[in-house]
Amino acid sequence: QQQVKQSPQSLIVQKGGISIINCAYENTAFDYFPWYQQFPGKGPALLIAIRPDVSEKKEGRFTISFNKSAKQFSLHIMDSQPGDSATYFCAIHRRGSGNTPLVFGKGTRLSVIA
Amino acid sequence: ETGVTQSPTHLIKTRGQQVTLRCSSQSGHNTVSWYQQALGQGPQFIFQYYREEENGRGNFPPRFSGLQFPNYSSELNVNALELDDSALYLCASSFERAGELFFGEGSRLTVL
User: Model confidence over A25-50: pLDDT tens digits?
Assistant: First the structure.
């Protein structure tokens, strides 16, 4: 059973446009929701993360929107640039009591074209 | 500050062989997690080591085993290799079990 579902599988965005990637999860016990960015030949790197006590977190051009009742969260990349072309993974994590390992979505391959 | 380093970066094995992958954790980190990333997929949790003890395991058979050493570096061993074991193996270190994960660049294993 897939614990976190990510969509779309791939995304093509014009330079300067907004990239939106969505994730949905089942278990409300998770308390940490990070997004990772992975370039070819590299390991995943933490991009931005949110906890369920806030509905939005913004860092530069990257924003996470979190809907606790719908059990969904999304990554928005504003003013997308060719350098943002990478694979993005959402993940879910339980850091509190009874912590569990990080569980990743299947990834979204983003291509930003000029 | 040295990041997570993994070796080897690439290797090719044949079915039935055994492989050992190595990981040096980031300075100050006492926890190492191993993930398997098949082509086009997200990383899948194999197991975690904390203070030299296995602390959680994903849905992987016993032929996947590991070690953590007193300096917190770690090894992943896979016995009786199968074609489906071909993947990128990622090591991530963290400070404590629920801490932020910092990934290495991975070891790409090809099983023929």
Answer: 998 888 899 999 999 989 999 999 99
Structure tokens at A61: 């051009």
Are B11 and B88 in contact by the 8 Å Cβ rule? The answer is no
Question: A102 with A90: CB under 8 angstroms?
Answer: no
Q: Write down the pLDDT at residue A98.
A: 63
> If interface means Cβ-Cβ distance under 8 Å, which residues of chain B face chain A?
4, 33, 35, 40-45, 48, 56, 58, 90, 92, 97-98, 100-106
Task: Give ∠ CA A99-B43-A105 in degrees, rounded to 5.
Answer: 80
- Among the partner residues A43, A101, A106, nearest to B42 by beta-carbon distance: A106
SS3 at position B91: strand
Two tokens at A4? 């976190």
Is residue B89 within 8 Å of residue B104, measured between CB atoms? Answer: no
A43 closest CB neighbour out of B40, B98, B104: B104
CB contact under 8 A, A106 and B41: yes
Calculate the alpha carbon distances from A71 to A101, B2, B92 in Å.
19, 37, 27
Provide block-wise average pLDDT over 10 residues at a time, chain B (112 residues): 90 98 94 95 95 92 97 96 98 86 96 98
Would you say the C-alpha torsion B54, B60, B61, B67 has a positive or negative sign?
A: negative
